[in-house]
Structure formats: structure tokens, C-alpha cells
Design a protein that fits this description.
Layout (H helix, E strand, L loop, with lengths): L1 H11 L12 H30 L3 H12 L16 E5 L3 E4 L9 E11 L4 H6 L1 H13 L3 H4 L2 H16 L7 E11 L1
Antiparallel strand pairs: 1-3, 2-3, 3-4
Helix pairs in contact: 5-7
């Protein structure tokens, strides 16, 4: 009797796959496409990481300039100070109202460091510090929050600040503007 039941159960079970367990070709293609896509993403992330580590940060520039001011000049790439091709001039923080947009009143808080050319005289930009601060605040007052939230807007602001300050300097010029902090509230 046990033999009859075993035969009946064998008849009920589904027949075995004749191809020996062949997989669905669509699944194979999807796994292959996914693997290629993941490899592509990993490659682009690696390239972006290499690009970002090659750029120097504002902290590196300030450390190098401070070491140069203290009389320490060493080689690049060793983590030690190097001679820069300009003079860094840190400014105190700014708080300025932004131009009125559709929303509530907004303001910007910013700390910046100006980089002057080597032939600039430190006395000039120290004596013109109030004029430099006024120019930066006036430029910030003309900006809308939407403009400054984008990277292009911040870069354009740097160029505007450089041009405005260079318009009244006599002995030197601003090479670059570095944002140490930038916050819009």
C-alpha cells in the first residue's frame, strides 16, 4: 500500500525541466546591465574623487600663507607651507540684507579672504578696508537669495567683488576671493 501511495505522489509532482535547470535569459541580461552600470558609476566616482583631492582647500591656502608670514617656507606636497603668488588679506564677517524677493526678508552672513597680487602694498588695502567692506556689502545688497543659492551665482559674486575692488585700487589688484563661510538665512 505504501508503494501505491509513493507512485501516486510521483505522478502528481511537476515534470523536471528537460533543459537541466536553464535560467531565464532576461534575468541574465538584467544582471549583466546592472553590473556594467555599477562599474560605470564606480569609475566616475573614482575620477571625481581624484579631481577633488587634487584641489587645494581654503584651509590649505591660509595655512600656507600663515606659515609664510611666520618665515616658514617649505616644499609643496609635503603638507608644509609653500610660497604663494599673492598676499592674503582676511576680512571680518559680513551680515547684509539681500534684495527683496517673493518670500520673506533674507540676509547673508559671509566671511571672506581676499588674495592680492604680490606687488600690492599692504598699507593700501589696510587703509581702504572700509571702502572694500562697503563695496562688498553694497554688492551683497543687490543680490537676490535665489541667485546666491546656486554655485554659478556665488562664482559670479566673486567676480563682481574682484572687479568692484580693483576699480579703486591704485598700487595692486585682487587676484581672487575665497569664501571662508557663506550662509543665507
Amino acid at each position: 500500500m505504501a508503494e501505491a501511495e509513493a507512485e501516486q505522489q510521483m505522478d502528481i509532482q511537476p515534470p523536471a525541466n528537460k533543459a537541466g535547470g536553464a535560467k531565464n535569459p532576461l534575468l541574465t541580461v538584467l544582471v549583466l546591465v546592472n553590473t556594467i552600470a555599477m562599474a560605470g558609476i564606480a569609475y566616475f566616482q573614482f575620477e571625481m574623487h581624484k579631481k577633488m583631492t587634487a584641489q587645494s582647500s581654503i584651509q590649505d591656502v591660509v595655512k600656507a600663507e600663515m606659515a609664510k608670514v611666520n618665515g616658514e617656507e617649505t616644499k609643496e606636497g609635503t603638507g608644509e607651507a609653500v610660497e604663494e603668488d599673492g598676499i592674503l588679506f582676511p576680512l571680518e564677517g559680513f551680515t547684509a540684507n539681500l534684495a527683496q524677493g517673493d518670500g520673506p526678508r533674507r540676509f547673508v552672513r559671509m566671511n571672506a579672504v581676499l588674495k592680492f597680487s604680490k606687488d600690492s602694498k599692504e598699507e593700501e588695502f589696510k587703509s581702504r578696508k572700509p571702502q572694500i567692506r562697503d563695496t562688498i556689502i553694497s554688492t551683497l545688497n543687490s543680490k537676490r537669495p535665489e541667485e546666491l543659492l546656486k554655485l554659478e551665482g556665488k562664482n559670479f559674486l566673486k567676480e563682481e567683488i574682484k572687479a568692484a575692488i580693483n576699480s579703486f585700487l591704485v598700487d595692486g589688484n585682487v587676484i581672487d576671493v575665497y569664501y571662508v563661510s557663506f550662509q543665507i538665512n
